[in-house]
Amino acid sequence: MTTYLIRRFFQSVVTLFIVSIATFGMLHLMPNGVARAMLGKNYNPTSLATLNHKLGLDRPLIVQYWNWLDRLVIHFDLGYSYQRNQSVNDLLKETLGQSMYIVGLALFFTIALSVPLGVLQATRRNTVTDYTITTFSFIAYAVPVFFLGVVLRDVFQVQFHLIPIANQIDSFHAAFSQPGQMILPVATLVVSGVAGYSRYMRSSMLDEITQDYVRTAVAKGATKRRVLYGHVLRNAMIPMVTLIGLSLPALVGGALLVEQIFNIQGIGVLTINAALQNDFVIVLGTTMLTAIVTVIGSLIADISYAALDPRVRLT
């Protein structure tokens, strides 16, 4: 177990290192350079030289990368936005809470709904129940997140006024103190998530039901309920753990669009606005944060295998 954890830790570090090189390098491949793009219409040779010196962009690229990586690893300093005159860390403190609140609730309800729906479909395969859930899953999966969000907003807020239109939610306190305003953003992500997760859970359950250990348990007199929930479900959750761990970036990406639709000032809106304003320091910081969350999610998923299935040996 210890050897496995050490190996996975170093694999995660290498992955993040490669992502950092790729992200940092792509930003510096922009035509005329990062500083030129940041200046926009305010460009002139003097201001360009000043900004290049202020950002350290007049140094060799390897030196720039090393300085940025040193600040990130030693101090977890994601940089400073001169356009906003604020550090990226402070900006993330202001916006991350709202995003984590939405993503956390969406992930919780997605799992809570997907697992029983998948089990229900697997145990009632090729019945009206299975076909009905499958039809709705395909429809929900095919609908883009942004389109679904707009439709829910127009129907429940604009047309029927069932949910009041949210004021700008610009802090975690505002998001937490206005739970009603979170219903539609979370529902948008949950509908899309359940559509895919439930199908995956159904397939995983069907694969396990046909295994020899199920027939052996039934032959020994174990009840169907005990076999299903005591053995099959536990083993079927292993692929689901992988899916959940690796789907965090997609969930965060969906939240990015949802925040824009429902006027929530989270990390998604921060990233979009930074990209539109050519504030690449913020874009680089949020990209690295997303990469770190992805790697951690994958690592947690791998470690969870042993808890779900004793047959798995982490060596």
Describe the structure in your own words.
This protein is an all-alpha fold. Helix content is 77%, strand content 1%. The chain is built from 14 helices and two strands. It has helices at 2-27, 34-39, 45-55, 61-75, 88-123, 128-142, 145-159, 172-177, 183-209, 212-219, 224-246, 248-261, 267-276, 280-308; strands at residues 80-81, 86-87. A two-stranded antiparallel ribbon has the order 1-2. β1 and β2 (86-87) form a beta hairpin. α1 (2-27) runs antiparallel to α14 (280-308), α5 (88-123) packs across α9 (183-209) and α6 (128-142) crosses α9. The radius of gyration is 24 Å and the shape is globular. The model has no long low-confidence stretch (mean pLDDT 81).
| Largest sheet report | 2 strands, antiparallel
Using the CA coordinates, give the radius of gyration.
24 Å
What string, H for helix and E for strand, traces the elements in order? HHHHEEHHHHHHHHHH
How far apart lie the N and C ends?
A: 6 Å
E-strand count: 2
Low-confidence region ranges: none
Fraction in helix: over 70%
Task: Spell out the blueprint of helices and strands.
Layout: H1 2-27, H2 34-39, H3 45-55, H4 61-75, E1 80-81, E2 86-87, H5 88-123, H6 128-142, H7 145-159, H8 172-177, H9 183-209, H10 212-219, H11 224-246, H12 248-261, H13 267-276, H14 280-308
Antiparallel strand pairs: 1-2
